[in-house]
Every structure is written in C-alpha cells, then in structure tokens.
C-alpha cells in the first residue's frame, strides 16, 4: 500500500476501509501530510467554497453531574468555581450576539439538571420569539428522547454531542458511571427527531491508539453527523489526568483533514482547543478543511470559569466581541467569514428541497 494512493482514493470516493485508514495514520510522512491537507482543502472548497461560518458560544452553566476524567468542570472537581447564567443573562448574550451579527447561538453547559426541560424550553422559545430567523444550537449532554423532542419542538434546531471516542473500552475508562450505548443512542435519537447533529472526539487522550482513531473515523462515516467537533486533549490541573500528555496540533490537523475527506459536507469547527495549543492552530485547522469558528459570547466575568482544560482561550481572537480581529485573521489565511445560518449542505438539500 502507498499512502498517497489511499489519499487519492479518499479524495475520489470519500471512503477508505479500516486497514487503509490505519495505514495512513501509521505511515504518513511530511510530504503525505501536505498532500492530505491540500486534498482536504479542495474538498471543502468544492462543498462550501472558502467560507468560514461563525457561531456565538454561550457557556451558560458549568455545573455538571458527570465525572469525565479529562474535564475541568467534572462534578468531583471541588475547586471549580461554579456558575449558572439566569434566563435573563442568557437572553442578554443573545441580544449582544445578534447586535454583533451572529445568527447562531450555541447554548453549551455541563449536564446540569437545574436546567429542566421546562426551563430549556422557555429559554429556547424566548430566543426564537425575538429572533425567529436565528438558530439555537444546544450542547447540554445526554437527555431522554422526549426531552430532546420537547426542545426541538420549542425551536432548537441543532445539537452538539461529541461521541468523545468510538472505542467502547476507552469510553468506559474515561467516563465513570456512563454508558457508551446510551451516548450513541442519544446521537441516534437526536437525528431521528430532526436535529442537525454534531458528533466529535478528542485527539491524544491517554491510551488512545491509531486503531482507536480509525474507529472514530469509521463511526463518523457510518453515522454521518452534520457537524463534527475535533480537538486535542489538553490536561487540566484539577483532574485525574493532570499528569498526562496532551494531544498534538499535528495529529489533530491530520484527523480534521481525514474527516473532511470522509464526510465532504460536514461542518467542521476549528475548535477553541486547537487555538489554545498553538497561536495559529485555528488557521491551520481551517487550511486543513475546517469551516466553522465558535467565538465566545458568554459574559466576560464567567469565561475563565468554564475551564475544561488549562490555558483555554476566551479573550482576544476567541471572543465574539472581537469579531473584527477574528475576521481579519481568517481573511489573512485566505478565507472569507460568513455570518449566515450556515446549514449543512446535505441537510439543506434534504429539508428545504434546494
Ligand atoms: N481537553 C480537551 N477537550 C476537552 N473537553 C472536555 N475536557 C477537555 C480537555 N481536557 C471537550 C469534550 C467535550 C467538549 C465540550 O470539550 O470533548 O465534549
Ligand atoms: Fe460534564 Fe461535559 Fe465535562 Fe463530561 S466533558 S464532565 S459531561 S462538562
């Protein structure tokens, strides 16, 4: 087998089998890597041109009942300074977002059941009443089919729920008292209800092998999420994984490019974690096929409290109010910023007959 041939196959057919993907991950040299990035970029250009979509991220609660070993806001981290935004504060963030031109708001939080279905429905309805054209995206973890349905009916249209890793064994090691099966079921339920769904995984989590990463790629190819969040694992000082090594920029870029080749129409963010490990991380991600950025719209005084990992960016280019600096960096990298809804193109074809 030759790496370049497999990349060509991925480019032409948007597919490769387990052995081929593993061969790429195990044998990719610098020249192959450049070629992979080039091809991934071409596929993105074919599907989305050189547009990069912007979403405003509102981190509305850092309470979480879960204990993911890697995460700085896990329930057992007693050092995390907890906060919840009020409904009014969330609406203020949305107002600011709309003023700045953001048409999509991602309401992200830990698994915090203070925010009951009723509270979420009320927030979603208020946002949609005021801004009917704008999109509400939820990222609030695992809930029942009926909860997801109520929130969809209230007007939420997209949902981000990373699968985190497609290896059941690794999933179980990282997520105490959680069920891999339930997580995957949640993703399926979301799709069935009609959400545009975001899956995703971390690169470089302890004990993760190239075989595991291939499992992620094959899972994504089969599940076909509309969006996919990929970022490097970054250790957090108050978690059980504090002394572990983090994921690298290089490996994350390779995974982004492979996902773009496997899922040409996926919306792929250049994540905050990528921007946090390298000052040009986001641009490098965009050049390898990423086409979404999610600047932070949360109130400034809570931003450092949403501390998933050490060194998480929340100011400067990561801040929604700094739209001009974000735009100018994206332009400098050769891309244009698009502030519209930014739907997944295959979802649009299916749902709006376009
Ligand atoms: N490093 C990188 N990403 C992390 N996340 C949580 N903790 C970390 C960490 N230490 C990611 C998870 C989660 C998303 C919101 O943030 O993938 O789904
Ligand atoms: Fe909670 Fe999400 Fe952190 Fe897990 S990754 S502890 S579910 S906020």
UniProtKB/TrEMBL annotation:
<dbReference type="InterPro" id="IPR007197">
    <property type="entry name" value="rSAM"/>
</dbReference>
<dbReference type="InterPro" id="IPR013785">
    <property type="entry name" value="Aldolase_TIM"/>
</dbReference>
<feature type="binding site">
    <location>
        <position position="71"/>
    </location>
    <ligand>
        <name>[4Fe-4S] cluster</name>
    </ligand>
</feature>
<protein>
    <submittedName>
        <fullName>[FeFe] hydrogenase H-cluster radical SAM maturase HydE</fullName>
    </submittedName>
</protein>
<feature type="domain" description="Radical SAM core">
    <location>
        <begin position="50"/>
        <end position="265"/>
    </location>
</feature>
<dbReference type="GO" id="GO:0016740">
    <property type="term" value="F:transferase activity"/>
</dbReference>
<dbReference type="GO" id="GO:0044272">
    <property type="term" value="P:sulfur compound biosynthetic process"/>
</dbReference>
<keyword id="KW-0479">Metal-binding</keyword>
<dbReference type="InterPro" id="IPR034422">
    <property type="entry name" value="HydE/PylB-like"/>
</dbReference>
<dbReference type="InterPro" id="IPR024021">
    <property type="entry name" value="FeFe-hyd_HydE_rSAM"/>
</dbReference>
<dbReference type="GO" id="GO:0051539">
    <property type="term" value="F:4 iron, 4 sulfur cluster binding"/>
</dbReference>
<dbReference type="InterPro" id="IPR058240">
    <property type="entry name" value="rSAM_sf"/>
</dbReference>
<feature type="binding site">
    <location>
        <position position="68"/>
    </location>
    <ligand>
        <name>[4Fe-4S] cluster</name>
    </ligand>
</feature>
<keyword id="KW-0408">Iron</keyword>
<feature type="binding site">
    <location>
        <position position="64"/>
    </location>
    <ligand>
        <name>[4Fe-4S] cluster</name>
    </ligand>
</feature>
<feature type="binding site">
    <location>
        <position position="164"/>
    </location>
    <ligand>
        <name>S-adenosyl-L-methionine</name>
    </ligand>
</feature>
<keyword id="KW-0949">S-adenosyl-L-methionine</keyword>
<dbReference type="Pfam" id="PF04055">
    <property type="entry name" value="Radical_SAM"/>
</dbReference>
<dbReference type="GO" id="GO:0046872">
    <property type="term" value="F:metal ion binding"/>
</dbReference>
<dbReference type="InterPro" id="IPR010722">
    <property type="entry name" value="BATS_dom"/>
</dbReference>
<feature type="binding site">
    <location>
        <position position="183"/>
    </location>
    <ligand>
        <name>S-adenosyl-L-methionine</name>
    </ligand>
</feature>
<feature type="binding site">
    <location>
        <position position="139"/>
    </location>
    <ligand>
        <name>(3R)-3-methyl-D-ornithine</name>
    </ligand>
</feature>
<dbReference type="GO" id="GO:0042364">
    <property type="term" value="P:water-soluble vitamin biosynthetic process"/>
</dbReference>
<keyword id="KW-0411">Iron-sulfur</keyword>
<dbReference type="InterPro" id="IPR006638">
    <property type="entry name" value="Elp3/MiaA/NifB-like_rSAM"/>
</dbReference>
<keyword id="KW-0004">4Fe-4S</keyword>
């Amino acid at each position: 087998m030759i790496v370049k041939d497999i990349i060509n196959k991925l480019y032409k057919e948007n597919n490769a089998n387990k052995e081929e993907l593993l061969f790429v991950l195990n044998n990719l040299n610098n020249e192959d890597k450049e070629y992979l990035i080039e091809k991934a970029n071409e596929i993105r250009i074919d599907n989305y041109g050189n547009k990069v979509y912007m979403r405003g991220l509102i981190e509305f609660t850092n309470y979480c009942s879960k204990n993911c070993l890697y995460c700085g806001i896990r329930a057992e981290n007693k050092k995390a300074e907890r906060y919840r935004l009020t409904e009014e504060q969330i609406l203020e963030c949305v107002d600011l977002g709309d003023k700045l031109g953001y048409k999509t708001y991602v309401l992200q939080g830990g698994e915090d059941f203070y925010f009951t279905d009723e509270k979420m429905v009320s927030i979603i309805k208020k946002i949609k009443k005021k801004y009917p054209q704008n999109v509400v995206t939820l990222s609030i973890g695992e809930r029942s089919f009926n909860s997801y349905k109520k929130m969809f009916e209230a007007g939420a249209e997209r949902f981000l729920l990373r699968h985190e890793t497609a290896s059941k064994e690794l999933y179980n090691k990282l997520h105490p008292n959680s069920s891999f099966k339930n997580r995957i079921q949640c993703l399926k339920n979301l799709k069935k209800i009609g959400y545009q769904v975001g899956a995703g995984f971390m690169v470089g989590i302890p004990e993760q092998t190239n075989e595991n990463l291939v499992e992620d790629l094959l899972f994504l190819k089969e599940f076909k999420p509309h969006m996919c969040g990929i970022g490097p694992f970054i250790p957090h000082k108050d978690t059980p994984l504090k002394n572990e090594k983090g994921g690298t920029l290089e490996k994350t870029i390779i995974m982004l490019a492979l996902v773009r080749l496997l899922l040409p129409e996926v919306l792929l963010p250049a994540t905050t974690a990528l921007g946090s490990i390298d000052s040009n991380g986001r641009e490098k991600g965009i050049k390898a096929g990423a086409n979404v950025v999610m600047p932070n719209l949360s109130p400034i005084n809570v931003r450092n409290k949403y501390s998933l990992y050490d060194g998480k960016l929340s100011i400067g280019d990561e801040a929604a109010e700094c739209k001009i600096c974000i735009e100018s960096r994206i332009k400098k990298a050769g891309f244009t910023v698009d502030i519209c809804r930014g739907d997944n193109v295959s979802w649009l074809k299916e749902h709006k007959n376009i």
